[in-house]
Amino acid sequence: GISWNTVCYMIGEVQYGGRVTDDYDKRLLNCFARVWFNENMFDSAFCFYTGYKIPVCKTLEQYFDYIQLLPAMDSPEVFGLHPNADITYQRNTSADVLDTITNIQPKESGGGSGETRESVVYRSAEDMLEKLPPDYVKAHLVKMGALNSMNIFLRQEIDRMQKVITVVRTSLNDLKLAIDGAIVMSEASKNLRDVLDNMYDARIPQVWRRVSWDSSTLGFWFTELLDRNAQLSTWIFQGRPKVFWMTGFFNPQGFLTAMKQEATEAHKDWALDKVAIHNDVLKLTREEITSSPSEGVYIYGLYLEGAGWDKRRSILVESTPKILFVQLPVLHMFAVDSS
């Protein structure tokens, strides 16, 4: 007979598995090997997937002919994936191609009559500087109470946002001076050269990315900077928000920790190391929230990838075709004593 364990090992660990570097990919490969490679694969009704069966041929040429009839591109369903997986693959492939094309474009100014790249970037820099928020004033934070756990978290967020604003303002001002010729933008000025090249390509300069967050384009990144700043400014000047934009924080985990500390302070008999975080997915949107919860916080801005959400039954469902991301309704995050 056939030693199926040996066959599975040769395929899942050696011939194909030896080329797989991701642990989860290897786990999936071994799972397929265990399910497929056994005595049942010689049954006449067996198929790997609809249209993918073991051919019964007598000559090598017949096997070649059968292989030629197989699709050149396999659908995601063949591998047990949702059809949306193909959209993600095609999008990533297209992005890689476009990035490669952008990277090999000449960086120097052309001699044509059109607008030069320096003038394009200069105008963009002026527009960003005009919209860039002002620096934070520490005096406003002192009035809010320095020892409150949520205010401590707010100070940390503001410190990081202030660093981003400072780096962006300094880079843009230096870039304008360099384009005007007031300072020399030599090859040694790698940061300025990087800012110039990336702004022209609508990408995020590395010096900005290092102190901030990632985004698909420079426009989305700058819009998010303004939105993040708006949430922090509103918290300072208008009081604690009724619902928080969770993904607008540098340290979302720190926000949840501050919420746990706040709950521990409210319940004197709770120990912080025994407090656990729970959540309820509400049926409300951000606009429908009119007041803060009695305990915990309301958050929004979380998305599902690879699944859908049934608002009526509040359960996970299969993804809708051609919809890759689904925004969750408002979540109520709260702490409970698990001791």
Automatic annotation (TrEMBL):
Which Pfam families does this one have?
A: AAA_lid_11 (PF18198), Dynein_C (PF18199)
Gene3D superfamilies recorded for this chain? 1.20.1270.280, 3.10.490.20, Region D6 of dynein motor
Q: Which residues form the Dynein heavy chain C-terminal domain?
A: 92-337
Q: Which residues form a coiled coil?
A: none
Domain Dynein heavy chain AAA lid: from-to ranges: 2-85
Mention one GO biological process in which this protein takes part, according to its record. microtubule-based movement
Q: Name one GO molecular function term.
A: dynein light intermediate chain binding
Cellular component (GO) terms are:
dynein complex
This chain belongs to the protein called DYH8 protein
| Organism of this sequence | Edolisoma coerulescens
